[in-house]
Design brief:
It is a single chain. The strands form 5 sheets. The protein has a 6-stranded mixed β-sheet with strand order 12-11-13-14-16-15, covered by helices on one side. 34% of the residues are buried. The protein folds into 2 domains: 2-138, Schlafen, AAA domain (Methyltransferase, Cobalt-precorrin-4 Transmethylase, Domain 2); 145-400, Heat Shock Protein 90. The protein contains 14 helices and 16 strands. Helix 8 (258-270) packs antiparallel against helix 9 (291-305), helix 9 runs antiparallel to helix 11 and helix 9 packs antiparallel against helix 12 (368-378). It starts with a strand and ends with a helix. Strand 1, helix 1 and strand 2 form a beta-alpha-beta unit. The protein is of the alpha+beta class.
Length: 429
């Protein structure tokens, strides 16, 4: 994303809303000393080198003023003056996507009403709820939502059928493990479905424990996750007017918790994929290997453990004959590029993640993307695509079961913005 701003009247105040928006979204480049004419074509201000250098100084002076912006974010190399070879000079500010623990990037010393995000081609104020969620994500290192201890919940809130199904999956993976002989309550403590706060002495079931193993009414209790409504929709019918050929949602026929949803949906998705594949009685342990099935299993678990479950959105899985689409509420805590690189693992619900890891799902931190991509490459299918939506905030993974086209490497927006070819194209047309 590239934003052009004139600097003919001095350093533009609108620079900072764009700076905040880029930092809180996916980054971008701001060029000071250029504007768009009525035909959306770039027109250069014709700044001198000294004027561009002065703009750079003003930028750094304001960037380090906490009453102007909460975090300067840029390093020295990210703000530089550029000679347009006779047309004048510009100041280039390469604004990165802010790390989750540095957000929100806000203005004027007040986050509420002064935090922006980029939507389409404009800078928009974040809602108070969006700001609160950014603060919550930034504090993940100090405690996650799924680790919160719930008041008044007892063993009666646990669906024993779900718990025993999970324990069977655990036992199949960890033969003769000491946890096998534990009571249900002792086991729940081991997987942190029940925990004690060493500082306050408070103890009880965690949000993660109830979400994973709880009864429907317990999961959706006001104290836990009242808006929890996972939804699987199958689109295989050829009948006109029939929206779904099958659906799994909270309809009163099953205990609506994460583990039940995971196992039920995974079994449905498994039938869409090629190659023989069978599951053990626990519904998770594989009896026959298929990288494509492993990829789907990983993607489904990712949607559940990275979801912002305390929002009014819900996890949705849609399947067609030629694609699977999974989406979850919340923004990504790393960039799409970092996700594919697999070197960064930041989880919004670390206790839920740990519970899945215990049964062999998502075993290695940061390796999820590798497993998903490899499973699709094994079938020579199009690489799964990650899409971030902003209104409302959702993360979507699209897994198309179609043959991949020949790879064509295209330059990124930043590479274009930095290149002389791009500059010449813009200003010499």
């Amino acid at each position: 994303m590239v934003e052009l701003k004139t600097a003919r009247g001095g350093f533009p105040e609108s620079f900072w809303s764009t700076f905040s928006a880029f930092a809180n979204t996916d980054g971008g480049i701001i060029l000071l000393g250029v504007k768009e004419d009525k035909n959306k074509r770039p027109v250069v201000d014709g700044l001198t080198e000294l004027e561009a250098i002065d703009l750079k100084k003003k930028f750094w002076d304001m960037a380090h003023n906490l009453q102007k912006v909460s975090d300067p974010l840029l390093e020295d190399r990210d703000a530089y003056v550029l000679d347009l070879e006779g047309d004048g000079w510009v100041l280039v500010c390469d604004v990165p996507r802010a790390a989750y623990d540095r957000k929100p990037i806000f203005l004027n010393g007040r986050p509420y009403g002064n935090t922006y995000k980029r939507r389409h081609e404009g800078d928009y104020h974040c809602t108070d709820e969006e700001v609160r969620q950014m603060f919550a994500d930034a504090n993940l290192k100090h405690g996650s939502v799924d680790a919160r201890i719930l008041k008044g919940f007892t063993m009666g809130d646990i669906d024993l059928e779900t718990l025993h199904k999970y324990r069977k999956a655990y036992d199949n993976r960890h033969e003769s493990h000491p946890w096998t002989d534990l009571t249900d309550m002792e086991f729940l403590k081991k997987v942190e479905a029940w925990r004690k706060d060493r500082t306050t002495g408070e103890e009880g079931f965690t949000v993660a424990g109830i979400m994973m193993f709880g009864k429907t009414q317990s999961v959706t209790d006001q104290e836990c996750m009242p808006w929890f409504f996972p939804d699987y929709r199958e689109h295989l019918s050829e009948k006109d007017g029939e929206r779904w050929s099958d659906r799994i949602y909270p309809d009163g026929t099953w205990e609506v918790n994460l583990y039940q949803f995971f196992t039920l949906v995974f079994q449905k998705l498994s039938k869409l994929l090629p190659k023989p594949f069978r599951l053990a009685e626990d519904g998770v342990t594989r009896l026959e290997y298929s990288p494509a099935h492993t990829a789907v299993r990983e993607a489904l678990a990712n949607a559940l453990i990275h979801a912002q479950h305390n929002s009014m959105g819900n996890v949705v899985v849609d399947s067609w004959a030629d694609k699977i689409v999974m989406s979850n509420p919340g923004s990504m805590l790393v960039s799409v590029d970092e996700f594919y690189e697999g070197q960064h693992s930041v989880c919004r619900n670390p206790l839920l993640q740990k519970m899945f890891v215990f049964i062999g799902v998502g075993e290695k931190a940061g390796s999820g993307a590798d497993v998903i991509v490899k499973g699709w490459e094994d079938q020579k299918w199009t690489k799964p695509a990650i899409v971030e939506h902003s209104e409302p905030e959702r993360v979507e993974i699209v897994m198309r079961m179609v043959k991949a086209a020949r790879k064509v490497t295209l330059p990124t927006g930043k590479e274009l913005a930095r290149s002389w070819a791009w500059t010449s194209m813009c200003w010499n047309e």
